């Protein structure tokens, strides 16, 4: 299907060549942006492959390219995520994978195409960007453009937000990213809490047992699903998504960089640190062949990265709030920081944090971390 004016047309992605053009478009749009990190092409292909990404087991999606005189200048996706709809019952469809030239007509044509398809699916609202779900990349970068994105975080040009807002899209929620210096010791109030926690016989903090890798990851995600269950937009990971996550993370997981806190032998809190793969792949131009694999393995396993991301931290709801909740949270974060220092990590990112999650924000800022990037989720009603 193709639609649009003679100069600009919207083409549904239907062939392998069109899907490849969809994936490779950012190489054109960001070629002069020093902060952009080329993603690994094969990872992007797998991400959009229904046979490899379990997202598609419970969702349907469509993808489109914007063509100006036959040349790709924009792209967008639209998704109907049944897991989201079953939990939130809000008749909201999602858009994502949005990239485009600095042109109002291009943004209008792309978003109108996604809106029309979602309306035809019975959706009454649109929200995004979700690339492709809330458990993958999400949000549009609206602040912090000069710093390269960390692992599993997106990038954008400053003009994207203005074009969306001109089309009637309004902020739904901001997601904050915090920068921290891993070499900095906890401030005195936090150090005092850590000493109290260390004195508790019932509390232990341990690394991940790689001999029980899948079971351990299942425990971590069980804590995550409980801890985050009341958060805005939350959708639990499916068993298939968990299996894919286990497979994808295994090459880069270091057992000492995952902290699990137990009370009387029962896991109740966790935190995960991952090497910032984007630091290691920035100069590979998306390619692992012929020598990219060797470079990547050497950088991750031998030389190590100087930066890391903490994408997950959670305390079971039964223990949230109060002194015990604080001790659990600070204990797993401090164990992660210590392991990062031992591995040569100097700086890191804690992300993402909902703008109104004040307990989490207070905890992070008590450690000296500072907000330095903001990603925004947008939405609007769909006209009848």
How would you sum up this structure, described in words?
- The chain is α+β, with helices and mostly antiparallel strands and 384 residues long.
- It has 2 domains: 2-175, Aminopeptidase (3-Layer(aba) Sandwich), CATH 3.40.630; 183-345, 3-Layer(aba) Sandwich (Aminopeptidase), CATH 3.40.630.
- It has helices spanning 16-29, 41-47, 82-88, 104-120, 159-166, 188-198, 213-227, 239-249, 277-281, 292-303, 322-342, 358-366, and strands spanning 2-4, 8-12, 59-68, 71-81, 92-100, 125-128, 130-131, 137-138, 140-143, 170-181, 203-207, 258-263, 266-275, 307-315, 347-354, 370-381.
- Strand 12 (258-263) and strand 13 (266-275) form a beta hairpin.
- It is globular and about 70 Å long.
- The model has no long low-confidence stretch (mean pLDDT 93).
List the helices and strands and how they pair.
Layout: E1 2-4, E2 8-12, H1 16-29, H2 41-47, E3 59-68, E4 71-81, H3 82-88, E5 92-100, H4 104-120, E6 125-128, E7 130-131, E8 137-138, E9 140-143, H5 159-166, E10 170-181, H6 188-198, E11 203-207, H7 213-227, H8 239-249, E12 258-263, E13 266-275, H9 277-281, H10 292-303, E14 307-315, H11 322-342, E15 347-354, H12 358-366, E16 370-381
Parallel strand pairs: 5-6, 14-15
Antiparallel strand pairs: 1-2, 2-3, 3-4, 4-5, 6-16, 7-8, 9-16, 10-15, 10-16, 11-12, 12-13, 13-14
């Amino acid at each position: 299907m193709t639609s649009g004016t003679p100069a600009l047309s919207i083409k549904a992605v239907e062939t392998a060549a069109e899907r490849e053009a969809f994936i490779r478009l950012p190489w054109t749009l960001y070629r002069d942006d020093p902060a952009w990190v080329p993603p690994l092409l094969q990872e992007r292909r797998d991400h959009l492959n229904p046979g490899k990404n379990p997202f598609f087991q419970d969702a349907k999606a469509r993808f489109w390219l914007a063509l100006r005189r036959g040349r790709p200048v924009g792209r967008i996706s639209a998704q109907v995520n049944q897991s989201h709809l079953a939990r939130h019952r809000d008749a909201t469809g999602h858009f994502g994978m949005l990239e485009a030239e600095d042109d109002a007509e291009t943004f209008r044509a792309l978003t109108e195409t996604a809106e029309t398809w979602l309306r035809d699916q019975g959706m009454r609202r649109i929200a995004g960007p979700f690339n492709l779900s809330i458990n993958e990349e999400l949000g549009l970068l609206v602040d912090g453009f000069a710093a390269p994105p960390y692992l599993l975080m997106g990038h954008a040009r400053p003009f994207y937000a203005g074009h969306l807002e001109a089309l009637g899209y309004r902020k739904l929620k901001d997601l904050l990213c915090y920068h921290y210096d891993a070499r900095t010791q906890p401030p005195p109030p936090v150090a005092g809490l850590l000493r109290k926690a260390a004195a508790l016989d019932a509390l232990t903090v341990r690394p991940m047992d790689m001999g029980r890798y899948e079971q351990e990851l299942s425990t971590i995600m069980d804590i995550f699903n409980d801890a985050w269950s009341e958060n805005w937009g939350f959708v639990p990971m499916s068993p298939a998504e968990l299996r894919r996550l286990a497979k994808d993370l295994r090459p880069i997981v270091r057992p000492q960089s995952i902290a699990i806190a137990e009370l009387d032998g029962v896991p109740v809190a966790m935190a995960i640190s991952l090497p910032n793969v984007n630091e290691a792949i920035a100069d590979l131009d998306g390619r692992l062949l012929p020598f990219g694999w060797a470079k990547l393995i050497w950088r991750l396993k031998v030389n190590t990265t100087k930066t890391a991301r903490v994408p997950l931290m959670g305390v079971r709801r039964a223990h949230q709030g109060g002194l015990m909740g604080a001790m659990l949270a600070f204990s797993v974060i401090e164990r992660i920081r210590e392991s990062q220092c031992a591995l040569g990590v100097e700086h890191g990112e804690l992300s993402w944090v909902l703008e109104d999650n004040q307990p989490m924000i207070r905890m992070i800022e008590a450690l000296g971390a500072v907000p330095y990037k903001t990603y925004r989720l947008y939405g609007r009603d769909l006209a009848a």
